[in-house]
Amino acid sequence: MKRYYLMTLLVILVLNFSLPRLMPGDPFLYLSVEDGHTGVTFTEEQIAQYKAYYGLDKPVYLQFFSYIGNLLRADLGYSIYFNTGVMEIISTRILWTVSIVLCAIVISCFLGTLMGGISAWYRDGPADKLLYPGMVIFSEIPSFLMGVFLLFVFAARLGWFPMAGGVTPFAEFNSAAEQVRDIVRHGALPVITLSLSRLGGFYLLSRNSMLNVLSRDYMRTARAKGLKSLRIIFKHALKNALLPIVTRVFMSLGTVFGAAVLVENVFSYPGVGRLIGEAVMVRDYVLIQGVFFFITITVLTMNWLADLLYRKLDPRIS
Hints:
Elements: H1 2-22, H2 44-54, H3 60-72, H4 86-121, H5 126-139, H6 143-157, H7 176-214, H8 217-224, H9 229-266, H10 272-281, H11 285-313
Helix pairs in contact: 1-11, 4-5, 4-7, 4-9, 5-7, 6-7, 6-9, 7-9, 8-9, 9-10, 9-11, 10-11
């Protein structure tokens, strides 16, 4: 298993190094750009000095070996555009992203599992006929499209939530509780968007898992004993149906991070997802590589934990 993770990491590192350099444009052309219009003020000599400083004047293969060597020393480099260490920039953004991602996973997992259990228990009943097609349609809607819809309805039209940002600019708060309320209001729509985009997946997984468990012989035995429905559901059915759902929770972290990139840019939320957009816009190679490497390590770690947990919960898996 370890060699598969190492091979995956190597492939991602090659892509992570290559893709920024395949993009059109040059990071130094954006250093003196104003308001999105070209206005380069650096001389050719100055640009050559910057390229030499960041090692971008060397052959590509030497840049790659230098990149790998820096990673082995836990050095993500120095941002060309923000003129700050990449790790320092990520540390100021990651809490915003992690907070909405964790909230979204908890909400979507709880509601999806609950509705999937109800749908399986009352299979072919009115609740199942209503929930199943609804969740299938829901799971196919792209997260950014859902975010734009929520932004238009609940922020632009109704004014219930802020249009953008993570906190009200220049606001003076009288208490910590008031500041927390402001942060929650700004994070509500991104969390709802990410939750809704994951809800269908958890619902379908929970429903299928519960249907599989409910068809087992020991469930018929439990019914034949005259046990109450709630005891059958929570003690016998849900307990055995949770295994794939727990694994899905860990593996969802990777996909939710990907969705957060789009959602944070829709809501101008100050997380890592928006940071990627900013880094790509200014072709900041070092920052792009650093952020993607950080997300890669996070996703691979979560998948590895999911594998370990799955083996722990089900010893039959070797």
